[in-house]
């Protein structure tokens, strides 16, 4: 019965779409482990001549590193078909904001690589001095550099008090641009005990300290990500489906850009969430309600041999 | 002229109030430095027979340590007249929530001392393992203890990724109580370059990770702080003034509890803020609009000899 439903969705999307956009965390893998069957599905679509593009809000890896992770988990990819927020943030700063000065980064090496690729000077990546705690003299000694034109906040496993001081202090200048990669609350890990904080938690604390909201979001559901993909790919929204695990990012992104949307239950949204959505007719949730649902992308594997 | 206005406010409050509640950071001192003249004013009020109570949202110190700081900066005080959120949080957990298990704390030694004073077992204070970054295996090894009945979030200069993982993971249990000390965005330091993140930034990131709002706020403008003061002090709201530097905490606290309110411009609110308030008739701001304003508490020193 479930199988028949999955088959119906599969057939409809294969018939109506020439392009498949895949979110990664919680769709293709959980942590270091590929979702069983997902690779067979993605590779079948490619073999069938579908355009497959990976679109992740994850800011921890450059395009090159994402290609390597995709490949190692069974999803061979190329740089040009791989979009992450480390890349889109760097593109925004270079092509749209056209900054000449430095960028203060709360984030990690993935962002650093993409900024380096575009020749943008940056500071802040890696652990900061964690001895700066509530001692006021320490705080006043916390070094603030000149010529910082933007603060870019992404996922940072080294988030600390001194990083919040610096981000807040740079953003005191209203001309300093506040760029955020994405607003995901949690990273889906497929683990029952631990909650893993997402970039949204880091961005929000900077917002509170700075008393400002980001000037631009470089991930889904923001416009910038789609514009970035469109610059190098021929996308007909009518023939494109966004496959994701997060209603607030993936599904809203798909809807806002006129794409079909498919929600899977292996990440942020669980099978329970999916059931609840289907039973809920709250109009406020309409923007987050997918056209199609599927417990796991791997459920299609049987149709892909 | 300014002096005449200050004198008028002083005379009115001296005549109408028998109790003065003073916020501390940004009212009595900035960082390690007393506001010039503030001690003369506070000590004059005490000598004149006024009941003087210190009411701070700062969670970094126990009552005893606050008494020591007050005294060292020229404001001799006693434990019973000194209320901070480390104390009110511990009181809430003991007397109202009546917890028997452990409390996971994002906060520092001040909170630890007050929990110890009431015999409440706690964990989390001090730097956590900062090597837990985005490595999924590290995250899964992040130790979660049994029997944690509450998560208490206050100011923590050692805020880190592993602390956010733990807070979020404990709060996954809907029976685990989420207690926050206060929601202040910044600590007023009287320094022009550095922004100092307040507890609000730390609480908000836990909210995002946990997907929950705090069950209780233990500082101003919440009810709990006033109830705590009333339990040990005879307070007639009509004859009491709340003196603070923060409209959203101090002034709202005063208004909600029927007190007179006086805003000073030496902390979160600046003299510019005060001017703007007086010119603004937005009804949404009414709750934050003080009855009286004064550039600095020290402006009264001349009337206190």
UniProtKB/TrEMBL annotation, chains A, B:
<dbReference type="InterPro" id="IPR036412">
    <property type="entry name" value="HAD-like_sf"/>
</dbReference>
<dbReference type="Pfam" id="PF13344">
    <property type="entry name" value="Hydrolase_6"/>
</dbReference>
<feature type="active site" description="Nucleophile">
    <location>
        <position position="23"/>
    </location>
</feature>
<dbReference type="Pfam" id="PF13242">
    <property type="entry name" value="Hydrolase_like"/>
</dbReference>
<dbReference type="GO" id="GO:0016791">
    <property type="term" value="F:phosphatase activity"/>
</dbReference>
<feature type="binding site">
    <location>
        <position position="23"/>
    </location>
    <ligand>
        <name>Mg(2+)</name>
    </ligand>
</feature>
<protein>
    <submittedName>
        <fullName>Phosphoglycolate phosphatase-like</fullName>
    </submittedName>
</protein>
<comment type="similarity">
    <text>Belongs to the HAD-like hydrolase superfamily.</text>
</comment>
<keyword id="KW-0479">Metal-binding</keyword>
<dbReference type="GO" id="GO:0005737">
    <property type="term" value="C:cytoplasm"/>
</dbReference>
<dbReference type="InterPro" id="IPR023214">
    <property type="entry name" value="HAD_sf"/>
</dbReference>
<feature type="active site" description="Nucleophile">
    <location>
        <position position="25"/>
    </location>
</feature>
<keyword id="KW-0460">Magnesium</keyword>
<dbReference type="GO" id="GO:0046872">
    <property type="term" value="F:metal ion binding"/>
</dbReference>
<keyword id="KW-0378">Hydrolase</keyword>
<feature type="binding site">
    <location>
        <position position="220"/>
    </location>
    <ligand>
        <name>substrate</name>
    </ligand>
</feature>
<feature type="binding site">
    <location>
        <position position="245"/>
    </location>
    <ligand>
        <name>Mg(2+)</name>
    </ligand>
</feature>
<dbReference type="InterPro" id="IPR006357">
    <property type="entry name" value="HAD-SF_hydro_IIA"/>
</dbReference>
<feature type="binding site">
    <location>
        <position position="25"/>
    </location>
    <ligand>
        <name>Mg(2+)</name>
    </ligand>
</feature>
<dbReference type="InterPro" id="IPR006349">
    <property type="entry name" value="PGP_euk"/>
</dbReference>
